[in-house]
TrEMBL record:
Keywords: Repeat. PPR repeats lie at residues 96-130, 131-165, 166-200, 201-235, 236-270, 271-305, 306-340, 341-375, 376-410, 411-445, 446-480, 481-503. This is Pentatricopeptide repeat-containing protein. Belongs to the PPR family. P subfamily. Pfam families: PPR_1, PPR_2. It comes from the Eukaryota. SUPFAM superfamilies: TPR-like.
Length: 503
């Protein structure tokens, strides 16, 4: 999408050129760096100091109040900062441009962009000159809310009024565009700002490279990386990690590993994310030997494997059906000072269930509860699926109730496992009742749900009901796959209705 298309929907603000002085070379919170020795350490200290200052006579300069507000912003107590600013203004203390910039920052972080623009209007009414902090913060606020059109329109209006932005502003816009998938527009903006004599830095380039890689536009990302090198903009570890992720996502493992040599030439040390990307792609391809070589290189480089590394290795072993090796990795985590997380437990439970080792899986579920870890929907769904496939369907209902009680209600994937087990065990009435119950609960069936039910009805001699289901899907325009058609054809053939099967 081009920038011209994105420029929609926000009224221009009326600012004369005189309102734009030469901007200050800092951004929100920077004004407090030189006073860091006097910053309150927590919210209570800040409020206590504020209350003492509020009743001092004469009142301390506004800078001192700004320091307190800034300290609250640093620890993300935005509502408190807003509340305190209202208090000192009610006492007749006039805010300055720094105060109002802080308030804009607070409202933007809270998602109240309209309130932030109200403060902007107040700046103009009070005769203050909005600076680069003011406008960049407003642009960031719009980007955080996903309002890229308004952010770009606001930027263009300011430019038309003679205002000039810098790397931080454009980095904010580029980041916002990439997060909403508008990587082509981000590339266009990158070229445009170079015409404004602004030299994009590594952060801006890396952001676009990351966005391109996440959309599998790896060739374009690598071209941009090559452009960085030509322009003598040194890539950083984030640049390389994004490229590695991109190459791995399209199955080009050799190209990803080759980037390690480029990192070495640039004197950049791979970090935990670099190695985890390579471990992940090796495991997904079932190349466990290569994954272990990467981990060995990781340790040699002084990078300690984390919970993601171990869990990824477990997933790899489970994919190639070597659950014993996965269990060994799981047990070795604690020995190496790594605490397994919910994802680790879910991976191991799923591995046990696929091997029909239900008791071992149940033991891990109980272990999670003993450690006050909350199993998620994936954990329960894996266990329920394993029980259903092991013929222990009568035990799943307690788990479904437990999911609901723990605030993790069963989803369609969970119910598909139960429906499949009921149909395969000829409990068709219970399957139909469960199917209707899921719909009544507002859970939308997917193509697998319908295929399971139609196949079960056909195999159970309920062809008429299966046909009604199938016709209902056709009328509704539901996009069925080959499995749904095959289930219906098998049912018709079994009943000797070859003409209907051919149709």
């Amino acid at each position: 999408m081009s920038l011209s298309v994105l420029r929609l929907g926000f009224p221009p603000f009326s600012l004369s050129l005189s309102l734009f002085p030469k901007f200050l070379p800092f951004y929100p919170n920077a004004i407090f760096h030189s006073h860091s020795h006097s910053l309150p350490l927590n919210r209570d200290d800040a409020v206590s100091l504020f209350n003492r200052m509020l009743y001092m006579r004469p009142s301390p300069p506004i800078l001192q109040f700004n320091i307190i507000l800034g300290s609250l912003v640093k620890i993300k107590h935005y509502p408190t900062a807003i509340s305190l600013s209202k208090q000192f203004q009610s006492k007749g203390i006039t805010p300055d441009i720094a105060t109002l910039n802080i308030l804009i920052n607070c409202f933007c972080h809270l998602g109240h962009v309209n309130f932030a623009f109200s403060v902007f209007s107040k700046i103009l009414k009070m005769g203050y000159h909005p600076d680069i902090i003011t406008l960049t913060t407003l642009i960031k606020g719009l980007c955080l809310r996903g309002q890229l059109r308004k952010a770009l329109h606001f930027h263009d209006d300011a430019m038309a009024q003679g205002f000039r932005f810098d790397q931080v502003t454009y980095g904010t816009l580029v980041n916002g565009l990439c997060k909403t998938g508008e990587t082509k527009a981000a590339l266009e903006l990158l070229k445009k700002i170079e015409g404004h004599s602004i030299k994009p830095g590594v952060v801006m380039y890396s952001t676009i490279i990351d966005g391109l890689c996440k959309h599998n536009l790896v060739a374009e990302a690598f071209n941009l990386y090559s452009e960085m090198i030509v322009k003598k903009i040194s890539p950083n570890v984030i640049t390389f990690n994004s490229l590695m992720y991109g190459f791995c996502a399209i199955g080009q493992l050799k190209e990803a590993i080759a980037l390690l040599n480029d990192m070495k030439m640039e004197n950049i040390n791979p970090d935990i994310y670099t190695f985890n990307i390579l471990v992940d792609v090796s495991c997904k391809e079932g190349k466990m030997k290569e994954a272990k070589i990467v981990i060995a290189a990781m340790v040699k480089a002084g990078v300690k494997p984390n919970v993601v590394t171990y869990t990824t290795l477990m997933i790899g072993y489970c994919l190639i059906n070597e659950v014993k090796h996965a269990k060994h990795v799981f047990n070795s985590m604690a020995q190496n000072g790594i605490t397994p997380d919910v994802h680790s437990y879910s991976t191991m439970i799923d591995g046990f269930c696929k091997k029909k080792m239900i008791d071992e899986a149940m033991n891990l579920l109980e272990e999670m509860k003993c450690k006050n870890m909350n199993p998620d929907t994936v954990t329960y769904s894996s266990l329920i699926d394993g029980m259903c496939k092991s013929g222990r369907i009568d035990y799943v209902w307690d788990l479904v109730d437990e999911m609901h009680d723990r605030g993790q209600p069963a989803d369609i994937i969970t119910y598909n496992s139960i429906l499949d087990a009921l149909c395969k065990n000829c409990h068709l009435d219970r399957a139909i009742a469960l199917f209707r119950n899921t719909i009544n609960r507002g859970i939308k069936p997917d193509k697998y749900t319908y295929t399971i039910v139609i196949d079960g009805l056909c195999k159970g001699g309920r062809l008429k009901i299966a046909q009604e289901f199938f016709q209902h899907l056709l009328i509704k325009g539901f996009h069925m796959n080959v499995l749904t058609y095959t289930a219906m054809i098998n049912g018709l053939c079994k009943a000797g209705l070859l003409d209907k099967a051919l149709t």
